[in-house]
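Fold Annotation — chain and its backbone

Fields — amino acid sequence, structure tokens

___
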Amino acid sequence: MSTTILAGIGWHLLGAAFAASFYAPIEKVKKWSWETTWALMGFFSWILLPLSLCYFVLPNFHAFYASIDPKTMWMVALFGAMWGVGNVSYGLTMRHLGISLGVGVAIGVTLVFGTVMPKIVQGNYEDLISTRSGHWNMAGILVALIGIAIVSYAGHQKEMQMGAETQEFHVVLGLALAVMCGIFSSGFNFGLYAAEPIRSAALALGVSPLFARLPCYVLIMGGGAIVNMVYCFSRLAFKKSLSLRADLGQPGGMIAKNTALAAAGGIMWYLQFFFYSWGEAHIPQRLDYVNWMLHMSLYVLCGGIVGLALGEWKGVGKRPVRLLWAGILVIIAAANMVGLGMAS
């Protein structure tokens, strides 16, 4: 396996680590509604950071986007909105299926759907079934799904032992929502494919391949931000138990602390795709479809490790922890299989 491919997997791993950790500071926000916290986090991650970094990356921000076909920009933004719908439905999935099972099914669906469907839509699915590298990569996807299932089952066992099982558990509704969440969340990867002309335009201007994906994020994350902001502020406006005025009426010190925590979570969320871009730049173009698979599977892997590091598994019996480690090892094996596929 070449050092370039290893570097690509390494950058994807770093991005996945930020993805798995971003909620840690958000959980420390006090006396604010989830909607206020999420909207502020989203402002940093989906609006401020994408725009700010592109001002530095692009020679002329306004001229660059003026040169892009409006149809392309609308398509990319609509895929971003599709991802935003998946993001909103995530909470409903957790409510009816539980955290571990919900995450496992949703991530599994978005991994497969987001990895395979863009190639089928483009008519390039032969890469998946007729080449040696495609065989290795498809096998890696299957093994990754097995690993995700094991990690999810371990998490479900942990929830049951710790009495954290959801009170609104409904397997049929929960699975339907998880599948919906997974399909719509894959809109982010569809957006990346649709934004290829934007990435190519950035490269043509001399932007480094490490940063050429960043101008695409402005539109993808912008589309998702609109959906999320509408959801959060409509709930703040119409749900009687919520009040933006009450949240912002807290003492100044608490507002500053909560803002810093939400901002930290937003920065960490954005960094997952910042380093996704770096990982993608090291993966051969003919194997671009493996980037999404690596990100999603490594996200679950890092989520398990972060949970252990934060003591979330403290006091849980040995069997769930062993299952967790087994699932982590299976996902690591899947990443190596994908690496072998890229090297072949």
User: Anything to note?
Assistant: Residues 200 and 212 are 8 Å apart (CA to CA). The chain has a mean pLDDT of 84.
